[in-house]
Design brief:
mainly alpha, 0% strand
């Protein structure tokens, strides 16, 4: 799962990010060359685009980590930390005992 799924998500996300960010930068530069966007707004828009893409990349990392954890659980790598049967311990009881 890790090999195929991880590569699929990483390559897919990279392509989407490159297309979206590249297309947005080209569109902003075209608007700037037509005089529709001033340099200050151009810089702000590009900074916002970069911040959004960084946020999406962070989300991608969280999904990747979650998939790796699920894979290790299925493979039994984390069994020693969880229990011999591979199941999670019961949740703590709330309220008085």
């Amino acid at each position: 799962m890790r090999g195929a799924t991880g590569r699929f998500y990483t390559i897919g996300f990279g392509l989407i990010a490159a297309l979206v960010l590249g297309g947005a930068v080209v569109a902003l530069m075209r608007l700037h060359s037509l005089g529709a966007v001033e340099p200050l707004w151009l810089g702000g828009a590009m900074g916002l685009l970069i911040a959004v893409m960084m946020g999406l990349w962070s989300l991608h990392g969280m999904v990747e980590t979650h998939l790796l954890t699920l894979e290790r659980l299925r493979a039994g790598v984390l069994v020693a930390a969880i229990g011999k049967d591979g199941r999670l311990p019961p949740p703590p009881r709330l309220g008085p005992r």
